Amino acid sequence: MFFQIIGTFTITDYLLIIFLTFLSYLFSFYYNYFTRPNPLPGPIPLPFELEIFIYGSNFKHIATTLYQKYGDICEIRFGGHRRIILSKTEYFENLLSTSSKSSSLFGKHEHTQGMDELGIFGRGIFFNSNYDTWKINRYLFSQAISTLGFNNEAIKRTNESFDELVEYWNLLSNSRLSSNDSNSNSSNNDWFEIDFLPWIKKFTSDIISVLTTGEKAYSMASYYNTCNSIDYIENSCRDDPTLNNSDKFIQGIISLIKGMIIFQIFNPFLRHHLPLIKDKANNVLENRDFIFKTLDDIIKKRKMELTNNPQKLKSKHDLLTYLLTTNHEDKIPINDEVIRSILLDAFLAGFDTTSNLLCYIIYYICHNPNVKQKMFDEIDSVFPSDISHVTADILAKLKYCEAIIKETSRMMPVTAVSKRVAATECEVAGYIWPAKTVFHLNYASIHMNEKHWENPNDYDPDRFYLKNDFNEFENDFDVENKKSIHNMDKYSLVIFGGGIRICPGKKFAMINMLSFMALMFRKYDIELVDMQAPLNTCTTFITMCLDLKIKIKPRKS
Ligand code: HEM
C-alpha cells in the first residue's frame, strides 16, 4: 500500500517533500534558537553547522572577535553546539572550581559521535570526562612526574639534548661555511640562520619521548639528516624496529593534534561523505592507529624487560616504568590500554605546548632588546661558563627568565581559550544553564584587558619579576601569594588552567623551558631573520607557531 502510494508520486511531489522537510528543519532550528534559555548577544546561527565555513577553526580569533563585538558574555553556535564565551574573570569561579566530583563542570569536551570515532576522548586524562577513571589516571601521572628522580632526569635529559642540538648546529654551520655557497642562507659575521620551529619541536619531543617511554626518539638526528645529506648521522640504535619509526611517531603526534579538530567541528555526514574532509578524517584515523600500535609495542617491550631483568629498571625514571611497576607493586588495576592513554596524554599535552611557548619567547625577546640583555645578564650571573650543565639550583635562581615565561604567556597564551561542558544543570555567570552547555574561558582577551594590566600591549616581564627567593611555579597557584605579587585577581593570568584540572605537567614544563633558556642564551645570541614579519600562529586546541626563522651567533664568553 505504502509503495503503491509512493509509486504514484511525480518529480514535483518529491521536490515538494524535500522542500517541506527542509522548511520544517529550518523552523525547528530557529524555533529552538529563539526560545533558548538565557539568550545572549552573538551572531544568528546558521543551519547545517555551516559556521565553520564562515568563521574558520581558529577559536582564539573567534573568541576575541566575539568579545570585542558583543562583550564579556556572549554566545555562538559552532560545531553543532551552543557555546558561551566568557571574557570576565568573575565568571570563571565555578568553572575553575577546586571542588571535585559534585561539580557538574568537570568535563572539558562535548560528547559527539566524532569523539567516539576517534577513540581518544573519554580515556586517559586530558580528554577524559569520567571522574572515576580520570582520578586514577591523573593520580598515577602526577605521582610519576613529581618524583625527584623524574625531575632530575628531566634536567639531565635537557642538558644532554642541548649538547646534541649544539653538535648538529655546529655541523650544519660548518658545512654551510665550507660549501662557500654564495646562495647559502648563512650570512657573514658568524650569524647562522635556522628555522627554529622544527628544531625546538624535535628537541622537546626527544625529551618527552625518553621521559615518557624511556625510549629515545632520535627526532633531532632525523631532522639533521633531512637538513644535511653530507654528514649523515649514523646511529646504531636506529636499527631497532621500534625506534626506526620514532620520528614518524612524533610526526604522527603532531598530525593527530592538528587533525583532532576535524572530529570536533565537522558533523558525521561531512566527515564521511565530503571528499576533502573525508580524506583528512581517514588520514587522522590511520595515523591514530599507527600511534596506538607504536605505543603498544613499546609497552610490550618494557614488560618483557621487566620480567627478564627487573634490576635494570630500578635506574629508570620514566613514566612508563613507573606505571608498570606501580601496577605490579600497588595492584592498581590499570591495563595496557590505560597505560597507553596516559602515555599518549604526555605526548599530546607535553611537547607542543613547551615548544610553542619557547618560540613565542624568542619572538618577543628579539623584539625587546632591553629584555634580552637583562635576561643575558641574569643567566651569566647564575650560570657562568665554567659550569658545564644546568642544575635545579641554577633554575631556581632564574627569576627574570621565569618572568619572561609569564609575560610571554600573557601576550601569547599557548592555551588561549579553554573549555568546560556542563554535565547537569549548573550556575555560571549568574545564569542557570541546562546540561551540555559548552563554556569557553577566553584567557587571551583577559590577558590583554586594561582592567587587569597597565599598557597591556607592552611586553614587560618586569610586571612579574620577583627579586626574592619565592618561586611561584614551585607550588600550586596560591591565591594569596599571587595577589601579593601581581596585586590582581587570581584569574587575570591563566597559563596552566585552574581548579582540579589544572595542568599536572606545569612544574616539568617550567623545568624544561627554564633549562632550555639558560643553556641556549648562555651560549647564543639570537635575532629574528625578518623583524617586520608578524608572529604566524594558528589556534586549534592550542595556539601553534607556524614558523620562526632566526639567526644565532655564539656569544663571547
Ligand atoms: C608551556 C607548557 C604547558 C602549558 C602552557 C600547559 C597548559 C595546560 C592547560 C591550560 C591545561 C588545561 C587545564 C584546564 O583545562 O583547566 C593543561 C592540561 C594538561 N596538561 Fe599542560 N601545559 C603545558 C605543559 C604540559 C606538560 C609538559 C605536560 C606533561 C608532560 C602537560 C600535561 C597536561 C595534562 C595531562 C593535562 C590534562 C589535565 C586534566 O585534564 O586533568 N602539560 N595544560
TrEMBL record:
Keyword Heme: yes
Molecular function as annotated in GO: heme binding; iron ion binding; monooxygenase activity; oxidoreductase activity, acting on paired donors, with incorporation or reduction of molecular oxygen
Regions that span the bilayer: 12-31
Family, per entry: Belongs to the cytochrome P450 family.
Required co-factors: heme
Binding annotation for heme: C503
Protein name from the UniProt record: Cytochrome P450
Domain of life of the source: Eukaryota
Natural source organism: Gigaspora margarita
